[in-house]
């Protein structure tokens, strides 16, 4: 710990020292065995063939990418009806979340988010020296009243993921509008729609409309989830010109690779892959949730999810740790998040039908053994 300044080596900033590094989802057992990875919310169907073909053609490793991702922003803008001038691309939406905190908050300021939300928000707040503040959840979902009650005159940024990770919970359009309406205008509302494409058109939370109409809303999206391009690191955000300008000032100048830009642009043009992924996810999510809810007499319950994963709560004789180990023994990696206050839960990404049936069978067997 760097409690005392050292005069013989550089001293880490105290707010950086307070950061717990992001813990990624595992793909290996403790003995090094490869596992089926259902721990990082990746698309089990891979990505669009069109994206693969575009990547194969985009072979310019010696050249810097277009710093403005012009063609990609045009494709995103066309797809979503957003002016490309109001779009900024990032090295994953992760970069944009961090830049939003950095641009609008600093030491002495507060960055607010819900309990059981994306762990990057806490890191983004601390990275710029701001104080992370957690509002109470309501049975694992985001609680607009609790968030509004937690706003102080130091609040500068509010992060909300909809649907949320790691709970999968979702707030409808009216609740998102109510949250935005209740925030002071000088607070930046960052609405993280990483799982937005898993919603149906009727479930759309209105975020893009809010970002188009107001001066204090940034919506972020990613190609990592339904588009299946997590390895390429491409995200985007949209908001008022002054917000986009702020992020452009501090982002990496060449923050999206040639490959990534080409892949994401082609992926925008292949919405049938997105639809197919959404339908696969909806069907398998429902089937898996029913299998878990059938174990209610064993103290197992699920949190209602609209994302590509399910948070399963172990409140009976079978513990999450025991289930985690049994799943690893059976060849599956899922996410245990004790560091986020969820020692009694597992977050399980929706994979193929065979994978989900196998996982359900392992958990059922363990639950019956535990009593
Ligand atoms: C996965 C995820 C992201 C996206 O991360 P990328 O950096 O775009 O890969 C953002 N927000 C939430 C809530 C996520 O779960």
Q: What does it look like?
A:
There is one protein chain. The chain has 371 residues and is an alpha/beta fold. The protein has two domains: 24-46 and 272-370, Aspartate Aminotransferase, domain 1; 49-269, 3-Layer(aba) Sandwich (Aspartate Aminotransferase, domain 2), CATH 3.40.640.10. It has helices at 14-17, 49-57, 70-80, 92-104, 119-127, 144-149, 173-182, 207-213, 241-250, 258-268, 271-293, 320-329, 353-370, and strands at 36-37, 87-91, 110-114, 131-135, 155-161, 188-192, 217-222, 234-239, 300-303, 309-314, 332-333, 335-337, 342-349. The chain has a seven-stranded mixed β-sheet with strand order 2-8-7-6-5-3-4, sandwiched between helices. A four-stranded antiparallel β-sheet has the order 9-10-13-12, with helices on one face. The protein has a two-stranded parallel ribbon with strand order 1-11. Helix 11 runs parallel beside helix 13 (353-370). The N and C termini lie far apart (45 Å). The structure holds pyridoxal-5'-phosphate (PLP). Residues 41, 92-94, 118, 161, 165, 192, 194, 222, 224-225, 230, 235 line the site of pyridoxal-5'-phosphate (PLP). The site of pyridoxal-5'-phosphate has 14 residues, from helix 4.
Notable characteristics:
371 residues, Aspartate Aminotransferase, domain 1, Aspartate Aminotransferase, domain 2, 7-stranded mixed β-sheet, 4-stranded antiparallel β-sheet, binds pyridoxal-5'-phosphate
Structure described in brief:
The protein has two domains: 24-46 and 272-370, Aspartate Aminotransferase, domain 1 (Alpha-Beta Complex); 49-269, Aspartate Aminotransferase, domain 2 (3-Layer(aba) Sandwich).
